[in-house]
Specification:
The protein is of the alpha/beta class. The protein is built from 13 helices and twelve strands. Strands 3-4-5-6-7-8-11-12 form an eight-stranded parallel beta barrel, surrounded by seven helices. It is globular and about 55 Å long.
Amino acid sequence: MATKEGTWGYRERFGDAFGRTYFRRFGPGVASSIGVGTYLGDATEAADGRYRAALTAAFDSGVNLVDTAINYRCQRSERVVGEALSEADADRDEVVVATKGGFVPFDGERPDDPGAYVRDEFVRTGVVEASDLARGSHAVSPEFLDEMLDRSLSNLGLDSVDLYYVHNPETQLEARSREAVYDQLEAAFETLERRRADGDIGAYGVATWDAFRVPRDHDRYLSLPEVISRAESAADAVGTDDAGLAAIQLPFNVSMADAFTVEAHAHPTEAGDVSALWYAHEAGLDVVTSATLGQGELAGGLPSAVDAELSGDTAAQRAVNFARSAPGVKTALVGMGSADHVAENVAAGTFDPLGARAFDAVFE
């Protein structure tokens, strides 16, 4: 598991190569404000090889946070993360490893009949109840998450992960009420509190796409204050000293800045609502952003007014630095499917992000 001593030692080795605030406090230690995402890419051996080279290069050049999920590239992303960790010069206690559970994963490749695969491999074997599935492919039941965490640890070749996310819980809103989803999350959190007590995870979080950045009346909205409250209740039920909910993940970039601009979460002491980024920061949650490059679209260019305010030699670097500049953000995830991508993306960290006033001015 990543440790305070290990991550600070990593910072000491690489910190002088980067701009100010490149390394930021994260969990018990520090993490690079640019992290490696592993979502995109084909489920092929060729893509595995490119990822393995990219991940190893990233770990050995100043990136010490990697984000994956059991369903990414049919479990191949988790497996290649584990391989890269064993090949890199960086020690395990220097690297923050995050993965997720929620979507039913395929194994190695997409089956010809996904529905039959889910029934045969997950429902009929008792891994998940059919009634717990939303859209036929998503579940957050305690039994399912327990099994997925075990499989993730096996895929990664690790005894523990630093951060385990419940993956896109808003998917469950397509099958049940919002209150029922909060109840599901509380039950999931109880399971993760037990796994944290057992040393299998360092902390847990909630990774979302829509939930925390949409207005209250949106059909995929979830309240961040309520989610935090359910984590506190779960910790009380299990008997842990404090809740293990430590982070949230959501998309954030120039074109998807809703986590900063949409005020949909009740202020803890005053009337009115605040943004997800504001609330998470005040609640002490680490914020990790996804879709930093808009799945590649922003590498071709940013709106001119924003672009002019950012530092970086390329549009991709400036897009990365926009996400790193958002208040409360600890790490911006960037897909790095080849070693060529690593050099450009890591170099973004040699430039300083925007200050708070300059970032605010972009939205005026």
